[in-house]
Design goal:
It is globular and about 65 Å long. It folds into 2 domains: about 5-115; about 140-320, Intergrase catalytic core (hpI Integrase, Chain A, Orthogonal Bundle), CATH 1.10.443.10. The chain is built from 13 helices and 3 strands. It has helices spanning about 20-25, 30-45, 50-70, 80-90, 95-115, 140-150, 155-170, 175-180, 210-230, 245-260, 270-280, 285-295, 300-320; strands spanning about 185-190, 195, 205. Helix 11 (about 270-280) packs across helix 13 (about 300-320). A hairpin with a 5-residue loop joins strand 2 and strand 3. It is mostly helical. The longest helix is centred in the C-terminal third of the chain and has 22 residues, at about 300-320.
Length: about 325
């Protein structure tokens, strides 16, 4: 068997890795493994649709790279092939963060191949993750949140629904997919909590406050029946068709509400999730409790919000200390 580096021409043309999936048809063996891995992620790992799409997209990018360079046997993948793949990615200005995610996905993929007796060793085990320089999540200030939650000039059923959604999002820190897919049954107004099915089908209970309860009661008593016009729906937040809202549509609504409130930041549903966590920790909440409410499997993911507060304290010190 030829060594893999002999299969790759050093003078091969530069290829945009972001376009590989669209422009390359995978050979049948690669396509079959790709589909089997997809099924494994869905049925065995039970990942969310978004996570499955991210994994399979990263795997498709790498398999397409191998196909372009005439590598059709996965046993030929070694450290030189991986370095060439990452080098090509850097030439195409793909960020370290994206490359780190791809390496993580490929480690899982090749471990799966070992499990299925397709290969004997994982060439990605010896690859260090590219340093991504993790960026701090952006959050709204309390003043901006108050402006966003303020009552609109004209209260319509749709406006009341949108406002109830934003209240609940800020009160619970849900992911946008979790928010739009909530059912009536999952929301306990008397106890003040929602039952959420999060990433990996992990269930958690998240409390919400009186302000969100009031908004939900107003929406359920008046606006929701008006929107449904006699239709029945299991969803908490409904459209005129009786279905739940899409993630993209809620994102658009939130941007419209932010613009109307005079908020210039580029807002997103995830920014409200960040705001929820940041404001809780700023006011003394326990880190472990915030981790449980956010549904983070690893507390190190939650700890990034403590860095935000440290940055805030540093800026205050710099501004007000006489000898700072």
């Amino acid at each position: 068997m030829h060594r893999a580096e002999h299969c790759i021409s050093l003078n091969a043309p530069s290829i945009l890795l972001t376009e590989l999936q669209a422009n390359t048809v995978l050979p049948e063996p690669f396509q079959a493994l790709h589909e089997q891995f997809h099924w494994y992620l869905v049925t065995q790992r039970r990942l969310s649709p978004n996570s499955v799409a991210a994994y399979t997209g990263d795997i498709s990018s790498f398999l397409s790279f191998l196909n372009i360079y005439k590598i059709r046997i996965l046993q030929q993948v070694d450290i030189s092939v991986i370095h060439r793949y990452l080098e090509q990615a850097r030439k195409n200005n793909i960020s370290n963060r994206t490359n780190a995610r791809r390496v993580s996905a490929l480690k899982v993929f090749f471990s799966y191949l070992i499990q299925e007796n397709q290969i004997k060793s994982n060439p990605f085990f010896s690859v260090d993750l590219p340093k991504s320089g993790r960026t701090l999540p952006k959050a709204l200030t309390l003043a901006e949140v108050n402006r966003l939650l303020a009552a609109p000039a004209v209260v319509k059923p749709i406006n009341q629904r949108n406002r109830a959604m934003v209240y609940l999002l800020y009160s619970t820190g849900l992911r946008v997919t979790e928010l739009v897919q909530l059912t009536l049954q999952s929301c306990n107004l008397s106890a003040g909590y929602v039952r959420v099915l999060g990433k990996g089908n992990k269930e958690r209970l998240v409390p919400f406050g009186e302000a969100a309860t009031d908004q939900l009661n107003n929406y359920l008593d008046t606006s929701r029946p008006h929107i449904l016009k006699g239709k029945k729906s299991k969803h908490l937040f409904v459209t005129g068709r009786g279905t739940c809202m899409t993630r993209l549509r809620f994102w658009q609504i939130l941007k419209e509400m932010a613009a109307a409130a005079g908020i210039s930041k580029s807002i997103s549903p995830h920014m409200l999730r960040h705001s929820f966590a940041t404001h809780l920790l700023t006011h003394g909440a326990d880190l472990r409790a915030v981790q449980l409410m956010l549904g983070h499997s690893d507390i190190s993911t939650t700890q990034i919000y403590t860095h935000i507060d440290q940055e805030r304290l540093k800026s205050i010190h710099k501004k007000f200390h006489p000898r700072g």
